[in-house]
Structures are given as structure tokens and as C-alpha cells.
Amino acid sequence: MRNLRFDRAARTSALGTAALIAALSLTACQDGGQAAADASTTTPGTSDTQPSAGTEAPAPQTGGAAASGSGKDSDSDAGQASGTGTTKAAPASDTRQDDGKDTGPVTRPCDGGNSKVTLTPVPRPVNHMLLTVTNTGSTACNAYYYPFLRFGEAQSTPPVIEESKPQAVVTLLPGESAYAGVMTSSADGSGTGGYSTRKAVVHFQGRDGSGSTGPSANAPLSKAVYVDSTLTVTYWQSDMDDALMY
């Protein structure tokens, strides 16, 4: 009887121990599964943050704030480049005359080889003539400064009226003309050393204004012209009225 009780008690104890071990094993499995699930959820670079198979990743953005900032840098660089580069000037400023120097592009001077001249009397002002130079060439030429005009056998050319200096060199396209006014003698007879002649020759100035350049041109006279010490000329003008206002 006593042995039977011991065996029953031992069997009961063994069953209890087995049940406890099974419970502990189940708990351990549950804890391990939860830990694995948590690790899968919190680990970076999982399938939740990566494009699925067969889906292309989005291309890098070039617009928006980043593109705008880059564009600003480009604009700044372009502005600096344009500030130091060569810029193309407007035609008027290309042929400016400052202190007797032309800063425009190199253009062949008008001279006796590409132009013709005429010298004609005018009714007003009195004792004045109009000198005209016409481009007979196939390309543009510049009428620089003022004409070197010689009457007869004169050894010097008449002085220029400085007030007639234009702001820009007169550029003549083929067929176009420039003008200079010539006061041959004083109206009140105050001039000296007067003489009459039927010969007039025009010499032309170059870009640097250091003297005559190119061939000269004869200015035919239909009748004798009286000149004296008051003989003066104007700068070349693009308009004949401007040439005769001095």
C-alpha cells in the first residue's frame, strides 16, 4: 500500500515537472518570435524601405530648391564672365572721337583712292564753299577729323574750327557723302595776303590724326576763288547744314 502511494506521488511529480518544462519552452519560443519580429521591424534597409522587385528607383531631382541654388551660382558666374569679356559696342560708340582719338573699329580712311571730292560755292554764308567727299568704293570708309585743303601753291593748310568737332567719326557707306564748310575769306576785308586760284587739292587724315594718309584728291573749280589769311575749314560732318553753320 505504501509503495503504491509512493509510485502515484512520483508519477504526479513527474507529470508536473513535464508540464512546467513544456510551459517554459512555449514561453521561450514566444519570446524569441517576438524578438525576431521586433528586429525585423526596426532594422534599417528592410523591404519596407526598398523598392519592390521590378520597380525603378526615382531619378535624382534637378529642380526645386537645389536646382534653383545651382542656377543662381551659374548666373553669378555668367555675370562675372560678361563683366570681363569682350562686349560688342553700339555703332555710335564704336566711332567716338575723344580728344582727337577715334576708339572705333579699324575702318579704311576715306582718301583719293576710294572717294571723289567737289568744292562748290554757296550763297550763304557769304565767302563760303561746301566741300563734299563721296565714297566711290565698294566698302565703308571713315572721314577722319577734317580735310587738309590746299589752295594754289600754299605751303600750309587752313586751320580747323574746333567748335565744329562732331561727337563721332563720319562713316560713309558706298555712295554716301560727308561735308566740310570752307570760309575762303573774311566778309569785312580784314584778311591779309589774299590771292585768287583755280586749284584746290584735298588731303585726308588717318585714324591716329598724325597727318595725311593715302592719295590726295583734286577738287575741280569752275572759276577762280579768292582766299586770304582768314581761310578756315570745319570737321567732316554727316549733314551739309551742319558744315555751313560756322
How would you summarize this macromolecular structure in one to three sentences?
Helices cover 28% and strands 25% of the residues. The chain has 246 residues and is of the alpha+beta class.
Question: Would you give an account of this structure?
Answer:
The protein is of the alpha+beta class and 246 residues long. The protein has a domain at 102-243. The chain is built from four helices and twelve strands, in the order H-H-H-E-E-E-E-E-E-E-E-E-E-E-E-H. The termini are far apart. The model is unreliable at 1-20 and 22-96 (pLDDT under 50).
Short descriptors:
246 residues, 12 strands, single chain, four-stranded antiparallel beta sheet, alpha+beta
- Quaternary state, please? single chain
Major beta sheet summary: 4 strands, antiparallel
Our count of helices gives: 4
**Gyration radius, rounded:** 51 Å
β-strand percent reads 15-25%
**Class by alpha and beta content:** alpha+beta
Number of strands: 12
Q: Pick out the low-confidence regions.
A: 1-20, 22-96
The whole-number mean of residue pLDDT values reads 73
Q: Report the principal-axis shape.
A: globular
Strand arrangement, largest sheet? 3-4-7-12
Reconstruct the topology from this structure.
Layout: H1 2-42, H2 64-84, H3 91-94, E1 97-98, E2 101-102, E3 115-121, E4 128-135, E5 141-151, E6 170-172, E7 177-183, E8 195-197, E9 200-205, E10 212-218, E11 225-227, E12 232-233, H4 240-243
Antiparallel strand pairs: 1-2, 3-4, 4-7, 5-6, 5-9, 7-12, 8-11, 9-10
